[in-house]
Design brief:
This protein has 218 residues and is an all-alpha fold. Helix 9 packs antiparallel against helix 10 and helix 11 packs parallel to helix 13. It is globular and about 60 Å long.
Length: 218
Amino acid sequence: MQKFTSFAEAIKANNMLAVKEMLDENPTLIHSVTPEGISMVMLAAYHRYSKLLEILVVRKRHLDIFEASATGVLREVERNVTKNKINLIEFSPDGYTALHFAAWFGHYEVAKYLVTKGSDINAVSKNDSKVTPLHSAVAAGFGDVASLLAERGANVNARQGDGNTPLHLAAANGHARIVQMLLEKGADPSIRNNEGKTPADLAREKKMEEIGRLLEGK
């Protein structure tokens, strides 16, 4: 148990040297998971440690569909789907689908493949965030993925756990182009979140007057 804890901590600390040394000593550590069921690859992905991820992906060789979608390894996504199409609709231990991960980490080709193969474009995460893949893409600022999802029929007015729509997230994060795209796709700027705020309210709280005016049609 001590080695597992040290390996996870080395990953959290982005200590590539320690990670390499531990894997050289015990290659099975690559298959470790946290008490919550999160793999070491996903742990590094959540921290967006790109260089460390390269090491882990090479060492693990075969990724599950969540890891492959989060890291953008299309061939591994394809392998998982070919092996069992149920992977398209399964949820990760922390409540997300493969499409959520492709959207959150901005992997356009993976997202396109998953949608084409039948992933639920409006899947709601099984956790308190209650986000859809479109929420994920917009929050992370990946306009190309957000546009893909919107064009393929994603609900542009879906409300996540706190009541925010994708338009709220785009406005709050200053993503003007995504705001414009969502409006063109039918997003409703009058929807209020659980705090009673519209997307324009969130934009103005961040001193983004241009986006506020865009949302109010001025």
